[in-house]
Design brief:
The complex is a heterodimer of chains A (about 120) and B (about 325).
Chain A (H helix, E strand, L loop, with lengths): L3 H14 L4 E2 H10 L11 H13 L3 E4 L6 E4 L3 H13 L10 E2 L6 H13 L1
Antiparallel strand pairs in A: 1-3, 2-3
Chain B lengths: L1 H15 L1 H8 L7 H28 L6 H13 L9 H42 E3 L6 E4 L6 E4 L6 E5 H6 L2 H16 L2 H14 L4 H23 L4 H15 L5 H10 L3 H9 L2 H15 L7 H27 L2
Parallel strand pairs in B: 2-4
Antiparallel strand pairs in B: 1-2, 3-4
The chains are: A mainly alpha (about 120), B mainly alpha (about 325).
Chain lengths: ~120, ~325
């Protein structure tokens, strides 16, 4: 049984790789045809719609309001989302320190230079 | 009871000012990070307790010879609507301040907890969509990004360690292992709880410079503890190389790497650059970590560690003892 998280991921993968907006029906068919099979062969359209509305609430998906049935598209590309998430990780702010622990915190240009020398010398 | 409140106040001042400064300047914590961590915790806890205790004891003084009878007197005033004449304005003020400080500390702790948890959940949600599990380790996620990044996101059973494929391109298998053991040590040793407590202490008392010192020291100490754990699995040159490679690549060499999403959030590349390079605490922390690995000093002797731990224990016992001492001594 696939979790909602898995379904969200499958739907987003499809929307990120498909240039044009898709309806819930098209998405369901695409999921059924997907080679990764395990997510759900026989998904109900209502399930797809639930997933889409969750994704819409999270600001990942937008609906074209004037079309019937509604067509959905991703708000920005996968790369942009990744860059945004990594920006959250890389930018130092005192209140972020407790959220996650990075292997190496931010390093100044001078410090980075010293580290490069250390690597070159070893 | 006055003398107890003065002693508590003296203790509060020592723990708020000279003690943390001395500890943050000392060099021995690098030789015994765990002991130093215990000492930081007891300084913070005893500091808060003596701050509140001093005001409370002093405020209640006119109502009784010891804390129990004085508190009883205070509750009579509160509940039976008796006049607070016996107490006087200054003492009422001290009691209110103690109560407010206590509530403030608790609320900040709770709020920080909620805020951190919300940020983690949002981050984990996005990771589910954007990353894929590493081939051989299910609790390790790989994300598509050129910058060499590794971090762990605590969350009980759903804790994950995240690596970028930029990191995987740069590091050898053994170096990756070093990074992963380091990050997993953070998770196993529950370092996020320490980070949470000290982040809360800092946002509760931002005007206290030592709350910043403490947070910085604690973030540095957990890195040392995680490094020590990594050294049980990989040799020291491997860990040093991993730190040096990630550290020298951690600064995005081309600003484009981080630029695009920022245009949308309305921040210029220049501002980010300043942010990224602004973390002086981290810079020192990386330098300290490397120095400690490259020129290892012998660990603190048993006797010295015992002394530091006894000091920590004493600090924890002292404020409660001073609170009840007037009772015992009559």
């Amino acid at each position: 049984m696939a979790t909602l998280g898995d379904l969200e991921r499958t739907v987003m993968d499809l929307l990120w790789t498909t240039p044009e907006a898709m309806t819930a029906n098209e998405l369901r068919d695409a999921i059924a045809e997907a080679p990764s099979g395990e997510v759900g062969r026989e998904l109900a359209v209502t399930t797809v719609l639930t997933v889409l509305s969750r994704l819409e609430k999270k600001g990942l998906v937008e609906r074209e309001r004037d079309s019937r049935p509604h067509r959905y598209r991703s708000v920005t590309s996968r790369e942009d989302h990744t860059a945004e998430l990594m920006h959250e990780v890389l930018v130092t702010a005192p209140d972020r320190e407790a959220v996650l622990a990075r292997f190496i915190g931010s390093v100044s240009e001078a410090e980075a230079e010293t580290l490069r020398k250390l690597l070159g010398g070893s | 009871m006055f003398w107890a409140s003065y002693l508590l106040a003296a203790l509060a001042i020592i723990l708020a000012w000279p003690a943390p400064i001395a500890l943050s300047r000392a060099s021995w914590p690098a030789r015994a990070p765990f002991t130093a961590m215990v000492l930081w915790q007891s300084i913070a806890l005893a500091g808060g307790l003596s701050m509140i205790g001093a005001m409370l004891v002093w405020g209640l003084e006119p109502l009784g010879d010891n804390l129990v009878s004085a508190s009883a007197g205070f509750f009579t005033i509160l509940l039976d609507d008796e006049s607070a004449q016996t107490l006087g304005v200054v003492h009422v003020f001290a009691i209110s301040a103690a109560t407010l400080l206590f509530a403030h500390l608790l609320f900040t702790l709770a709020l920080t907890f909620i805020r951190i948890r919300r940020q983690r959940r949002r981050h984990r949600d996005m990771l589910t969509l954007l990353s894929s599990p590493a081939a051989d380790q299910p609790s390790t996620l790989v994300i598509n990004h050129p910058a060499p990044v590794a971090y762990c996101l605590p969350g009980g059973a759903r804790s994950v360690t995240v690596m970028s494929d930029g990191l995987m391109d740069l590091l050898s298998r053994a170096e990756l292992d070093a990074v992963l053991t380091h990050e997993n040590a953070h998770l196993h040793q529950r370092h996020h709880l320490l980070l949470w407590a000290f982040a809360a202490w800092r946002s509760a008392l931002p005007w206290l410079p030592t709350s910043q010192l403490a947070q910085r020291a604690v973030s540095e100490l957990i890195e040392m503890l995680a490094d020590d754990e990594a050294l049980r699995h990989v040799d020291e040159p491997t860990l040093v190389r991993a730190i040096a490679i990630v550290g020298s690549g951690a600064l995005p060499s081309s600003p484009d790497a981080l630029d695009d999403p920022l245009a949308e959030t309305g921040r210029s590349g220049g501002a980010v650059r300043a942010d990224v390079t602004g973390g002086t605490a981290d810079v020192q922390s990386t330098a300290h970590r490397l120095r400690r690995l490259l020129t290892p000093l012998p660990p603190l002797s048993r006797l010295q560690q015992g002394a530091a731990l006894s000091a920590a224990g004493l600090l924890l016992v002292l404020p409660p003892a001073l609170l009840v001492a007037p009772e015992l001594l009559g």
